Amino acid sequence: MLKDIATGSTGSSPERMVVFKDKLYFLATNTGNVRQLWETDGTENGTKIVASLASASSLVVYNNQLYLSGRITNNDEVGAELYKVNLPDANLSAATSHAPEIKVFPNPSNGEFYLSNLKSGTFELFDLTGKLVKQGNFSGGKIATSVQPGYYILKVKTSATTVMIEKIKIQ
Q1: Range name among 8-12, 37-41, 147-151 with the lowest pLDDT average
Q2: Nearest to residue 109, comparing CAs of 45, 166, 49?
Q3: Any residues with CB less than 8 A from the CB of 52 and at least 6 apart, and which?
Q4: 157 and 113 both lie in a single domain
Q5: Whole-angstrom Cα distance, residue 134 to residue 156?
Q6: Is residue 72 over pLDDT 80?
Q7: Residue 66 or 163, more confident
Q8: Does the first or last residue of the chain, that is N or C, have fewer Cβ atoms within 10 Å of its Cβ?
């Protein structure tokens, strides 16, 4: 375990991982059931909260910017919005451009996955030790793999430099 975000047996449910400027950003829930945006450089001391959120559904890198879809805890806005994460001070501002929300489905699957809002690009599949086990191109929003059942990290890139990392389960 890199860092105990939610102490106890509950777990922090880290998800929606993206790499941006040599750091990994992800969404997690703390012990108080508050959704948070986190960043890590791969060390315990380098793993920290970027922002607390009322809700969040996705992170995406587009045009060398990090975007977040969701609601900010201390914002007067009622509905979910698209925000640009301004680093290093981690301010969130309403974005003027729209990055696509990307989902991997079904998850878990038998090794065949579909990507919403992405038609073609490259993918890399890593086991939980970080070892690359499969890589290739995808088209039609479909990725087909033939690997042993288990948990993997899927990294997807497109020509527009969209990077998305998702934990997947192959049965």
Answers
A1: 8-12
A2: 166
A3: 34, 35, 36, 72, 73
A4: yes
A5: 12
A6: no
A7: 66
A8: N
> Does a structural domain hold residue 115?
yes
Tens of pLDDT along 113-166? 898 877 888 888 887 777 889 999 999 889 999 999 988 878 787 776 555 666
Same domain as 76, residue 24: yes
Is the pTM for the entire model greater than 0.70? no
Q: Sheet with 142-144: list strands edge to edge.
A: 104-105, 112-115, 142-144
Q: Which residues contact 130 (CB under 8 A, 6 or more apart)?
A: none
> What is the pLDDT at residue 76?
47
**Amino acid in position 13:** S
The verdict on 65 and 86 lying in the same domain is yes
CB contact at 8 A, 109 and 171: yes
Residue 89 Rama label (left phi>0; alpha psi -120 to 50; beta) = alpha
Both tokens assigned to 149: 């059942």
Q: Determine contact, residues 121/158, Cβ cutoff 8 Å.
A: yes
Q: What is the CA radius of gyration of the chain?
A: 16
Residue 82's nearest CA partner among 105, 57, 103, 104 is: 57
Of 125, 124, 106, whose CA–CA distance to 116 is shortest? 106
pLDDT by residue (tens digit) across 106-126? 988 999 989 887 788 888 888
Structure tokens at 51: 């922002």
